[in-house]
Design a protein that fits this description.
Elements (H helix, E strand, L loop, with lengths): L3 H13 L3 E4 L6 H8 L5 E4 L3 H15 L3 E5 L3 H4 L2 H10 L3 E7 L26 E5 L5 H19 L6 E6 L32 H11 L5 E5 L7 H11 L4 E4 L12 H4 L11 E5 L6 H9 L4 E5 L14 E3 L3 H10 L5 H24 L5 H10 L5 E5 L3 H8 L8 E4 L10 H10 L5 E7 H6 L13 E7 L5 H4 L9 H5 L8 H6 L3 E5 L5 H8 L7 E6 L2 H15 L2
Parallel strand pairs: 1-2, 1-3, 3-4, 4-6, 5-6, 7-8, 7-9, 9-10, 10-11, 12-13, 12-14, 14-15, 15-17, 16-17
Helix pairs in contact: 1-2, 1-6, 3-5, 3-15, 8-11
């Protein structure tokens, strides 16, 4: 078989643990596609638009916590995977990209659909392997087998991330009539031991020793996946020693602060910890960042398995490169009582909770903020929630939305793009057919990624809520763009597009809403489990949104 190396690599990936492959059509990659399609142990999904395909694969990997393969052909097809690859790199999601390429000597020879593909993703993949699907010498097959194993292991090794296999394939691309597509019977599945990275006794003693020097301790959790250990520990935090846990909507953490966005005023030093301990990836809360830029903790320990120092607050004094759960347990057990410090936080939390409830009693008007308030209060108990970038994720955070144990929150905060939010949610929904998948998304982010719905296997468990405020509402709400005369034309980019035809075209039920009266009763039906996927498009006015948002901030400010 001419393309034996390709069939073997696919078999190795599948044997190692790849269960899903997203296949984008093309001839140069035909052998890779057929190797997956004819492998009964892998679920194959066909998606034409590579940009969307990349994000669907990312969504599947997010939900399954295991590497997803993506296959694409040569040329610009590969570049279209770049946004999802970059997101996977920074959000630490395992993807294995297999791109078909021309033989090396044919690149830049006016031979169609050819670009420079080796290393195309730059620093946004953990490794880029070049494979010649040529097996005239047995060492070439040995190399392909080795790289197949290595690619898999690399994608799941912490920090987890995407890996690229660029495969140079010569014609003929398709098997002849009687050719079978079987892996060599001597392929090797190379196993790898997995160990947990634990602290040695000396390091533990030194942590405990240092811990004793600090009176006020704050644990802050950035974006985290559901299965991450901190979630299991969040209950301990509150019961033991009164430790305060600060977390955002995307931290998937229970028993944390909810309203710090409103009360963390840099002028109030009371909240400043002596020791800050951070876990997870990025934080949404601007207030938290601004607060720490002014009020620096004496020490800042950051849990991070990997060599890059992610010094978000410019305060890190120690990187704890170890498994989180057991070290956290050690920290919690050895903390002095935090009751006085935690009282300050708890009073502030209660104060905002009351102010917020009063605000909505008096101001439930037709505006993004109020619709989000009701949407978040009426979410199904069991669901996945995708918060699209721009105001959907910000509103969730400032409204103090925190998922309960049976809910899981997803967001593309690796690069914060608006280009693949819906596709990512579709991927999560495909990987989790028993659960409802609710997506909160702005009109621009929806239109940008509407090819997410161009998928003939669209799942029936999607509930898409589009907040249509005729453009990028965020630019009207943040300092800077809102005061420029070019706001409407070049930042907000006002437009009258609606999602109706796109949604109907894709076979999803479409509902639109123009009033907040009876909105909650409408949501009961919308979130009902039965039936097919549904989309709700809510129309609001940008100026009204701005007015109510400013009033909300003023009423809640501390
Ligand atoms: C790929 C990409 N391009 C541009 C941006 C910059 N950007 C951030 S938010 C936004 C507007 C989003 O508008 P919409 O989805 O309608 O949400 P809204 O702000 O109205 O809530 C833009 C263009 C981005 N984040 N990602
Ligand atoms: Mg908008």
């Amino acid at each position: 078989l001419v393309i034996q190396a390709v069939v073997d690599i696919v078999e190795i990936l599948v044997k190692q643990g790849v269960k899903h492959a997203v296949l984008c059509p093309g001839s140069r990659s035909a052998a890779i596609t057929l190797a997956f399609a004819r492998n009964p142990a892998v679920a194959c999904i066909s998606i034409v638009d590579e940009r969307s395909a990349g994000f669907v694969a990312l969504g599947i990997a997010l939900k399954t916590h295991s590497p997803v393969a993506i296959v694409c052909t040569s040329g610009s097809a590969v570049y279209n995977l770049a946004p999802a690859v970059a997101e996977a790199y920074f959000q630490e999601i395992p993807l294995i990209i297999l791109s078909g390429d021309r033989p090396l000597e044919w690149i830049h020879q006016n031979d169609g659909q050819t670009i420079y593909q080796n290393g195309i993703f730059g620093k946004h993949v953990k490794e880029s392997f070049q494979i010649l699907a040529d097996t005239t010498h047995p060492d070439q097959l040995w190399y392909s087998h080795r790289i197949g194993n290595e690619a898999y292991w690399l994608s799941v090794k912490k920090p987890i991330g995407p890996v690229h296999l660029n495969i140079h394939i010569r014609e003929p691309f398709y098997p002849s009539k009687n050719e079978t597509y079987l892996p060599s019977n001597y392929i090797r599945i190379i196993q790898k031991t997995s160990a947990i990275n634990l602290l040695c006794t000396d390091e533990k003693a030194s942590l405990v020793n240092e811990l004793k020097k600090h009176q006020k301790i704050l644990i802050a959790i950035g974006q985290s996946k559901k299965s991450n250990k901190p979630n299991n520990h969040s209950k301990i935090f509150n019961s033991k020693n009164g430790i305060i846990v600060l977390a955002d909507s995307i931290s998937n953490t229970e028993n944390s602060t909810k309203y710090h966005d409103h009360y963390l005023n840099p002028k109030n030093v009371d909240f400043c910890p002596d020791l800050l301990i951070t876990i997870g990836e990025s934080f949404i809360s601007k207030s938290f960042k601004k607060y720490l830029l002014v009020n620096k903790p004496k020490a800042h320990w950051h849990f991070n398995e990997g060599s890059v120092i992610k010094d978000t607050f410019q305060t890190i004094t120690k990187v704890i490169d170890t498994e989180v759960a057991s070290t956290l347990e050690l920290i919690i057990e050895n903390c002095t009582s935090q009751n006085e410090y935690s009282d300050i936080w708890q009073r502030a939390e209660q104060d905002i909770a009351i102010k917020m409830s009063n605000f909505f009693k008096a101001n439930l008007v037709k505006a993004d903020l109020c619709f989000y308030y009701l949407l978040l209060q009426n979410l199904p108990l069991n669901c996945n929630i995708h918060l699209a970038n721009s105001m959907a994720i910000r509103y969730a955070n400032i409204l103090g939305f925190r998922p309960i144990a049976s809910q899981e929150v997803f967001a593309n905060r690796g690069t914060s793009g608006i280009d693949g939010c819906l596709s990512t949610a579709v991927g999560v929904a495909m990987a989790n057919s028993d659960t409802l998948n609710v997506v909160f998304i702005g009109d621009l982010a929806f239109q940008y990624d509407k090819n997410a719905l161009w998928n003939k296997n669209l799942p029936s468990n999607l509930r898409i809520v589009i907040m249509n405020n005729s453009g990028g509402g965020i630019f009207r709400l943040i300092d800077g763009p809102r005061s420029q005369p070019e706001l409407e034309e070049f930042f907000e980019t006002q437009q009258k597009t609606t999602a109706k035809n796109t949604v109907i075209d894709s076979g999803i039920d479409y509902y639109s809403v123009e009033s907040i009266n009876n909105f909650e009763s409408l949501l009961q039906g919308f979130f009902a489990e039965k039936g097919k996927s549904k989309c709700l498009e809510i129309f609001t006015d940008p100026i009204e949104n701005q007015v109510i948002f400013e009033k909300f901030k003023a009423d809640l400010s501390c």
